[in-house]
TrEMBL record:
Source organism of the structure: Thauera linaloolentis (strain DSM 12138 / JCM 21573 / CCUG 41526 / CIP 105981 / IAM 15112 / NBRC 102519 / 47Lol)
Binding site for phosphoenolpyruvate: 22-23
Name of this protein: UDP-N-acetylglucosamine 1-carboxyvinyltransferase
Main location (coarse class): cytoplasm
HAMAP family for this protein: MurA
Pfam families: EPSP_synthase (PF00275)
Cell division listed as a keyword: yes
Amino acid sequence: MDKLLIEGGSRLSGEVAVSGAKNAALPILCAALLTAEPVTFTNVPQLKDIGTLLALLAQMGVKVAREGDSVTLDASGLDNPVAPYEMVKTMRASILVLGPLVARCGEAKVSLPGGCAIGARPVDQHIKGLQAMGADVRVEHGYVHANVPRLKGARLFTDMVTVTGTENLMMAAALADGETVIENAAREPEIVDLANCLVAMGARVSGAGSDVIRIRGVDRLHGATHRIMPDRIETGTYLCAAAATGGSVRLTGTSSSYLDAVIDKLMDAGCEVVSERDAIRLSAPERLNAVSLRTAPYPAFPTDMQAQFMAINCVAQGVAMIRETIFENRFMHAVELQRLGADIRIDGNTAVVQGVERLQGATVMATDLRASASLVVAGLVAEGETVIERIYHLDRGYERLEAKLAALGARVRRLG
Ligand code: EPZ
């Protein structure tokens, strides 16, 4: 089981390039199922989750060609609309094949993803939407079985804002008979990136980025080339690492336009942030001010940045209140941060963080992707050595993490 060894104390400085967005690439790669023509994607991050999804698509009969950050998928030979439990259990975003398979094949058998460390994460809204579009959907023996000759456009309303729920229903609607309107749609930038890719493939989508998305179904989609947007959570994570260490960095191949809420909080914490056309520069003070936050759907503060901000609040001046409103169990990093000497009290979905002068290095355990990122941020500022165990969680969402951190002056290495 790989571990990461971090020697704390270096101020991060220098420049790194941000990779393509994991949470845009996952739905967009699934969109290739909607057409029998090849689709080419560039700026695809080389991550474990991407590899898992490509293997899932390949066992369905999709031809996968990969060269560096470019991936070409050819679903003309799609002949097995099944996503088996053994593959889905390792990556819950596999549920994103459900909508495209029903739309293209009229049937799908997709394992329920099951919960994960941060919460139960049901997919009832995905199912409700497909049923509203005329699909016969049954959940039996841990699988979602869906059948319909052709989906019909419908007016859909999701009970809560769901990112992959919105994405699944957008892709299903692209080939439906008639118009679909998704109300209470997620507004995340990754939704807009998916919509742009679908439109490039011939779909008729409007309103992406707002809470009402209209999709007028067409009979078929065609091939296209699409560049994946930058990863805003990777960007925010490196900004937090620089902020916590009193550093000064420049992140290229990214944009501040998807991170207003995060940049606002970094500036409240005392950082100077300068946005360039496709780069962001941050310089941090000797010590940050504590900043309180409350997670909520985009454009509010993203839940995927909550753990990283808890880490910077651990060494900031003052007390921060952190409220997590999206997932029911997304504070598991707190007990690990306490092992490093953090002063955190959890009360339901609120964490109260009293900043301390210094953290002390220790051995800690990663529990989920963003929790492990927060342990990296804390390890960079802790005195002495921090060893992070189970860093396969990190490899799911951060491309070449050690190399990028080392390029910024961090003393970090992977222990086999
Ligand atoms: C996406 O997950 C992201 N994953 C998550 O990023 C992110 O944390 C989350 O959106 C929220 O922004 C991908 O895009 C691949 P939701 P998703 O459906 O779509 C409840 C990371 O770190 N819900 O928006 O699964 C759900 O339980 C990952 O990169 C239902 O009850 O999240 C949650 O409480 C972690 N029924 C809330 O809604 C449903 O049918 C929001 O979930 C769907 C969701």
